[in-house]
Every structure is written in structure tokens, then in C-alpha cells.
Amino acid sequence: MRSVLCFGDSNTYGQMPGRGPLERFARDARWSGVLQRELGPKWQVIEEGLSGRTTVHDDPIEGAHKNGRSYLKPCLQSHATLDLVIIMLGTNDLKARFGQPASEVAMGMGCLVYDIRELAPGPGGTVPEIMIVAPPPMLEDIKEWRSIFAGAYEKSHQLALEFEIMADSLGVHFFNAGSVCRCDPADGFHIGAEAHESLGVALAQEVDAIGWVDQER
């Protein structure tokens, strides 16, 4: 059985758009659950989503535990061995409190790739396949979150390009979630049930395309 770690924020956790932080879609409706269904029983899909998670930043309001980099290494070790790590982060880095341009959010994503390579939690101590996923860009109307994400709308539309550049430079896989789904108008930055379905199906196709036949254990 192969294993894939899905490391992300509230859109991996499955938070329902426009609802409270503990209201989430059922496991089989979240994109990671759809990915499991599509990949089948030869794969174990491990979901690691946390609302508010950033790439590399301690959050001065929500807490230091929102720093994805701090949690990534113990997470990788606890779930090793891993054949693939999918990372979909970046939205929370766009909060006004961090003041980050899209290019520096991509640098944060690059740090996570370096950490995965350094730890090498793949079979036999190898580096697993890594896929960077750019989250779908925000909508202009993000309701009561407008001040928290001041300036984020424009930056969110730049993330895919910056992430793709970073992925190319590091030699890892890339997928633009915005090519198959969009954020829900209920709050403008979370994805709805149909988007989870579309994303999970698309990512399963991307995983299949990696070429695992040449990498059989």
C-alpha cells in the first residue's frame, strides 16, 4: 500500500464556507476523502488539515501552533513512510498581519519542500514525491473577513504563478486548484462540496500521472 500525506489548512480540514470553524464536511466529501475514493484501496490517504495554518509563520493572534513548518517534521515522522506529500497552503499567509507578497509566500512553501527533503520520510529513507498545490484564489467579497485579509484578493490571484515557479525551480510537482474549482461565495475563501469533489478527482489524476509503475517497491 502506498501512502500520501495531504498537508493543508481549513480547505483540507474541510471547513464549510460561511460556517463556524468546527463545522466541516464529512470525511468522504472532503477533497482528501474523494482522493482516497479515486485512488482506491492500494493507497492510504492521510489528511492533515488545520484551520489558520500558514507555511512558516507563527500567528501572533491564533497561536504559534498555526505555523506549518513547526508541525511538518513531526507530522512526517509520525506518518512515515510516505510515498507522496501534497501541500496546499498559502491563503492564511495573505492575512494583513503578515504583510507578505505572493512571492514570499512561495518562498515559505519552498522551505517546506526543503524540510521534506532533509527528513527524507520516503521508503528506505528516500525523498518522497512532493506536490505543491496552489489554493483557488479568493473572491472579491469575503464578508466580515475583509479587514483581516486586506489586500489579499490581488495576491491570491498571483499565488498560482509564484507557486509554479517555485515548484519548477525545486523540481517538484505542481497543480493549480483554481483550474478546477473556485471559492464559495458564502465567505469567499473556503471551497464548497462541489469544489472538494472536483479537486479530489483532479488530484487523483495528477497522482496517477506521476508514473508509479517505474517505482514499484
Could you characterize the architecture of this molecule?
This is Lysophospholipase L1-like esterase. The protein is α/β, with parallel strands linked by helices and about 220 residues long. It has one domain: Rossmann fold (3-Layer(aba) Sandwich). About 35% of the residues lie in helices and about 15% in strands. It has 7 helices and 5 strands. The chain has a 5-stranded parallel β-sheet with strand order 2-1-3-4-5, sandwiched between helices. Helix 4 links the parallel strand 3 and strand 4 (about 130-135). Helix 2 (about 30-40) crosses helix 7 (about 195-210), helix 3 (about 70-80) packs parallel to helix 4 and helix 4 (about 100-120) packs parallel to helix 6. The model has no long low-confidence stretch (mean pLDDT about 95).
Short description:
By secondary structure, this protein is an alpha/beta fold.
Largest sheet: 5 strands, parallel
Overall geometry comes to: globular
Please state the average pLDDT score.
96
CATH architecture: 3-Layer(aba) Sandwich
Structural domains: how many: 1
What is the C-level CATH assignment? Alpha Beta
Termini separation comes to 10 Å
- Number of beta-strand segments: 5
Amount of beta strand = 5-15%
Helix/strand-derived category reads: alpha/beta
Which sequence of strands runs across the widest sheet?
A: 2-1-3-4-5
The CATH superfamily name is SGNH hydrolase
Number of helical segments? Answer: 7
The run of helices and strands is EHHEHEHEHHEH
The radius of gyration over CA amounts to: 16 Å
CATH topology: Rossmann fold
Percent of residues in helices = 25-40%
